[in-house]
Amino acid sequence: MTKARAYTNIALIKYWGKRSITEMIPYNNSISLTLDQFYTETSVTFTEATTQQKPDQFYFQGQWQAPTNKMTRVLTRIRQMAGLNRQAIIKSENFVPTSAGLASSASAFAALATAGSRAAGLNLSSRELSILARHGSGSASRSVLGGFVEWQAGTDDQSSYAQSLLDPVPFPIVVIALVVNTAPKKILSTAGMQHSVEHSPFYPAWVKTATAALAPMRAAIAQGDIEQIGKLGETNAMQMHATTLSANPPFTYFAPETLQIWQLVQEIRTKGLSCYLTLDAGPNPKLICAKQDVASITTQLHQALPKLAWTVCQPGPAVQIID
Ligand code: DP6
Predict the structure, then answer these.
(1) Based on the structure, what is the number of domains in the chain?
(2) Whose CA is nearest to atom 14 of ligand 1?
(3) Are 189 and 106 spatial neighbours (Cβ–Cβ below 8 Å)?
(4) CA of 88 relative to ligand 1 center, distance in Å
(5) Measuring from each residue's beta carbon to the nearest atom of ligand 1, which residues come in under 6 Å?
(6) pLDDT tens per residue, range 25-81
(7) Cα–Cα distance measured from residue 85 to residue 191, given in angstroms and rounded to the nearest whole number
(8) In what order do the strands lie in the sheet with 173-179?
(9) Residue nearest to atom 6 of ligand 1 (CA)
(10) 281 CA → ligand 1 middle, Å
(11) pTM of this prediction?
(12) Range of the domain at 243
């Protein structure tokens, strides 16, 4: 049995759309920060039984269930690489401080790729692990690494993987993960991004602007300019969400509270504090700020929205084998 722990990541320049669905190749590079507070632990055991004799088994949230298609994709590749045809038993647990809809496929597939490949006797490089994790979920390609990470879109299977930009992170950047809604997403990211690709006339503009934002984001990270990272991140997030609002039919991941918080963040900025918002395929915003401003920002959030829950995250590490 091999067990791995992988941390989730928040994209600052987002991945939103696949050039190749079968190969999981994105339209544009993305840049993320791995977070230290949310992680998945997954163990994989290959039994003596063959896959013809016994199907794979998956233990999750206290019960046995059939592995998902995305999991099977990763396990099939592991078996092909290792030349092995054994049944896999996978046990997985998500560690999230609040009971939020914050469990992420990014940490799940980075942990599965790492534990599964090691259990099969493979010793993969971080590039190979990133490629493998990508076949589970695109964002998982980045959770193989810690700190700031860039996923090179590439043009084919072997050229599409994540690389480290900066790890460890020597400046005090913090991400405050806010929880406005814990209900499961109605439109999963896989379907949501494909809808934007096919039905938003703004999609080509998204790819162009996201690509143009990469160099300034890399520069802001290299300079440790938290304000600039936040600014670029907020603009990129809103540009991504504009492709859902502009699709036909349109949809949105915003909840009323999401907009309320965005307005509050803008107000907080007028008081001289640096605080920016980003948002993935769900209503829960993440605020980018400097560590020294966390207390003033959360005090203001609490005054305006007394029921709001949050978790303060710092840069997190790369995937680890823990057993
Ligand atoms: C908005 O990686 O969950 O979080 O590759 O289809 O599994 P699939 O999608 P997923 O999408 C993540 C979308 C995002 C932006 C990002 O993390 O870059």
Answers:
(1) 2
(2) 280
(3) no
(4) 26
(5) 11, 14-16, 30, 105, 137-139, 189-190, 280-281
(6) 999 999 999 999 999 999 999 999 999 999 999 999 889 999 999 999 999 999 999
(7) 31
(8) 275-278, 286-290, 173-179, 309-313
(9) 190
(10) 8
(11) 0.97
(12) 173-313
